[in-house]
Amino acid sequence: MLIGTDHPINKSSKRFEVDSRGRKNTSSFKFCDMMFEDGTGLLQKGYIVLLHLVIVTKEVSLLDTVVGVIGGSVVLPCFSKEPQLTPEGITVNWKHRNTMKVYDIVKGKGSVEGQDPQYKNRVEGDSEQHLRGNFSFKLKNLLYSDAGQYQCYIIEESGIQTVELRIKEPLQLPFVPSVGGSVVLPCSSKQSQFKTEDDITVGWRHNETLKVYDIIKGKVSLGNQDSVYYNRTEMIRENYLNGNFSLKLNNVQRSDTGIYTCHITNELLIQSVRLEFSRTEFSQGAQARPEKILLVPLLSVVILFCM
Asked: What are the Ig-like domain coordinates in residue numbering (predicted)?
């Protein structure tokens, strides 16, 4: 829209300009002297130039963390916000750590052209689901190196969805020799060494809820430890500085049975171990309890007979 200098709006309106950060400055209008040639000479007129600035932003959203078992498969989710999609309007790029090319969707169809070699024959997509706005894909035969953040770039929506993949090892199964004894719950890093102690953050959990033992930036932290584990846990500093996060649990009780998970934060790695008693230990416990219950009525009969 162009308005001449003699237009009434120029006499009453405030002036504004846009600064380098895209903000309005209400100090002055920006006038331009424009030269026009009408055949009789050059006519100089002033015009207001209204600039419409369009700022394109990328919407970034972090989805829930996904956990996959080493050697298994996992689905990494990504969904469109558009209700109606056409094949020509679907272009999506999946990347690992913002650099490695994992999977593309071009005009609604999956493509592995230019795919990073480490994902070869390990990626599956569903073209029918892509047309419905579901850009998720399956990653098979999971490796330790697959851990990390994956970015789903939806080109038409100028959006990025990020999902974090953590790798979990198969369950390990130790047995406790007896109630009141000790057991070592194994956990170890896949790295040969750490740059600094600050790189070491590990959390042990019992049945995913009870806090058993924490190492935060290379230092033991028991401030939030569940009370049932007070003075019953041990870890050797020299060992964990070298990547051995195995935990010794003392004075083991029957209530300690269950699954213990070791979360190695900087590696996005989860190792799990099931703690349970041997069949012999359980059978001995099962026999002891009825003997005590049967003893009470027996003593009662003897006392009544004597009276």
From this structure: 71-168, 170-278
